[in-house]
């Protein structure tokens, strides 16, 4: 695979990291940090949601997770060994602002200082995501995303983060997969805070959009040279059958999944079904406040969806893919062409540099007799998907970076630790990290790409510094 990057199409968007293709990894705070009640961190909605038995597989929680809070130097060293030049992580809002607003927690803020400085010293560019689903419980007690005031709370949180880290971090995302945490958390009740209510879902969708726009303004005003975006999970939504009911359900589902956030954020409008549903919560000026100029589009992509009609509150739900579609160990369809097509579609619609901010697969990883993990199915998946990305780029998609999901095996929400997505195996009993065969494959592929381009991370950084 050779990746050709046409840098002439977005000259205005050239920023240091964009001078060389980024090969990175993504994680999120609640999924890896642990230390849930250490150094002043307060409960997030996930701590509270996971507490009653029966909600999360094996009654797991993120209380300890990968203990990344204490083991981040080892994790950064591993990233460096793999040759990564970027790392996307999220800030735990309840670690830096335990009550969600008001007094900041210096010890929590200092953790991210240490992490950022360690990354920079390793030549790895830090990418911050402000929100990857761990809302402070104190704010949920006030209505959480259902309360319009959250847009102000989120903007104040963004201001704190911008002021503290904006000297060293330039790439910020407001939200990770807003479609997932709103639909699963307020529509289906499968994720924290476990609400399943039509009005709650639509309020949450609009207030997340409003929070995004306000935070973008704050970040833009406070971080010189900021490169701002949001991270969306996006893929084709195919009807499960040829029935008109499933066809209509697939269209409706796609409005919630693919368009509920990118459309307002880029074009100041909601898709048709949603426009009606959110109308009671939209106030004059909101849409202009939401649609602020952005610098890049973050894509998380794993599989296409196969959708069927349902009597749930959006009239649509996940169905089974056709029998002949290959699937991962956890049943997700493997369709690299859908990834290629999604990248091209995003390129056409949004006309921005694209970063693939998550892509990867869970597998049935086990330690072999030699103490290694031979995760051939993950290697095959990553190979096919990075090839599909290269095809999209050859056809014109302006993709500037790829972050594998995930660096480490971690807390996979409702599935607990039963699904391993890492390229690095975590033995949760001992916290030992063991790079899987896929980590070696990823490192070799990155090295080969750089050799093909005659570039190295160092070269890119020198060029970048020279502007
Ligand atoms: O683990 C999640 C992540 O938090 C968001 N994107 C999908 C991943 C795999 O399910």
Indicate the low-confidence ranges by residue numbers: 2-19, 455-467
The H-level CATH homologous superfamily, spelled out, is Glycosidases
Helix content: 40-55%
State the CATH class.
Answer: Alpha Beta
What order do the SSEs take from the amino end to the carboxyl end, as H and E? EHHHEHHEHHEHHEEHHHHEEEHEHEEEHH
Give the distance, in angstroms, between the N- and C-terminal Cα atoms: 28 Å
Report the sheet-strand fraction.
5-15%
Structure summary, number of beta strands: 13
Biggest sheet features: 8 strands, parallel, barrel
Remind me, CATH topology?
TIM Barrel
Number of domains: 1
Bound molecules: 5-hydroxymethyl-3,4-dihydroxypiperidine
Concise account of the structure shown:
The protein is built from 17 helices and 13 strands.
What can you see in these coordinates?
This protein is α/β, with parallel strands linked by helices and about 475 residues long. It has one domain: Alpha-Beta Barrel (TIM Barrel). The protein contains 17 helices and 13 strands. Strands 1-2-3-4-5-7-10-11 form an 8-stranded parallel beta barrel, surrounded by 5 helices. A hairpin with a 4-residue loop joins strand 12 and strand 13. Helix 3 runs parallel beside helix 5, helix 8 runs antiparallel to helix 9 and helix 15 runs parallel beside helix 16. The two termini are about 30 Å apart. The N terminus and C terminus are likely disordered. The protein binds 5-hydroxymethyl-3,4-dihydroxypiperidine. The site of 5-hydroxymethyl-3,4-dihydroxypiperidine (IFM) has 8 residues, from loops.
């Amino acid at each position: 695979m050779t990746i050709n990057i046409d840098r002439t199409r977005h000259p205005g968007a050239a920023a240091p990291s964009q001078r060389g293709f980024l090969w990175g990894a993504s994680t999120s705070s609640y999924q890896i940090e642990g230390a849930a009640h250490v150094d002043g961190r307060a409960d997030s909605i996930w701590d509270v949601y996971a507490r009653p038995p029966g909600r999360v597989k094996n009654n797991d929680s993120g209380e300890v997770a990968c203990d990344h809070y204490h083991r981040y130097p080892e994790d950064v060293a591993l990233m460096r060994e793999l040759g990564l030049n970027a790392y996307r992580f999220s800030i735990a809002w309840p670690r830096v602002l335990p009550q969600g607003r008001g007094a900041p927690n210096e010890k929590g803020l200092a953790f991210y200082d240490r992490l950022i400085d360690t990354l920079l010293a390793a030549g790895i560019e830090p990418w911050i995501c402000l929100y990857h689903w761990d809302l402070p419980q104190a704010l949920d007690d006030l209505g959480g995303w259902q309360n319009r005031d959250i847009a102000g709370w989120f903007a104040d949180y963004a201001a704190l983060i911008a002021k503290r880290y904006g000297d060293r971090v330039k790439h910020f995302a407001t939200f990770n997969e807003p479609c997932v945490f709103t639909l699963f958390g307020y529509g289906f009740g499968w994720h924290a805070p476990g609400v399943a209510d039509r009005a709650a879902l639509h309020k949450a969708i609009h207030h997340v959009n409003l929070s995004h726009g306000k935070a973008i303004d704050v970040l833009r005003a406070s971080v010189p040279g900021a490169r701002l975006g949001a991270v969306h999970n996006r893929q084709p939504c195919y009807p499960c059958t040829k029935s008109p009911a499933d066809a209509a359900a697939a269209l409706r589902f796609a409005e919630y999944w693919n368009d509920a956030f990118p459309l307002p954020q880029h074009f100041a409008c909601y898709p048709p079904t949603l426009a009606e549903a959110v109308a009671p919560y939209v106030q004059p000026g909101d849409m202009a406040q939401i649609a602020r100029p952005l610098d890049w589009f973050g894509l998380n992509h794993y599989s296409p969806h196969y959708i069927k009609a349902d009597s749930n509150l959006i009239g649509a739900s996940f169905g089974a893919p056709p029998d002949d579609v290959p699937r991962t160990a956890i049943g997700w369809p493997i369709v690299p062409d859908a990834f290629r097509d999604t990248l091209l579609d995003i390129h056409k619609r949004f006309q921005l540099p694209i970063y693939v901010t998550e892509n990867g697969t869970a597998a049935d990883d086990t330690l072999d007799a030699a103490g290694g993990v031979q995760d051939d199915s993950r290697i095959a998946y990553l190979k096919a998907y990075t090839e599909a990305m290269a095809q999209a780029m050859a056809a014109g998609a302006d993709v500037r970076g790829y972050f594998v999901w995930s660096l480490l095996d971690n807390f996979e929400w409702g599935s607990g630790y039963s699904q391993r997505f890492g390229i690095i195996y975590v033995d949760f009993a001992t916290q030992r990290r063991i790079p899987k065969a896929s980590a070696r494959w990823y490192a070799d592929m990155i090295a080969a790409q750089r050799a093909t381009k005659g570039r190295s991370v160092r070269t890119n950084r020198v060029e970048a510094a020279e502007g």
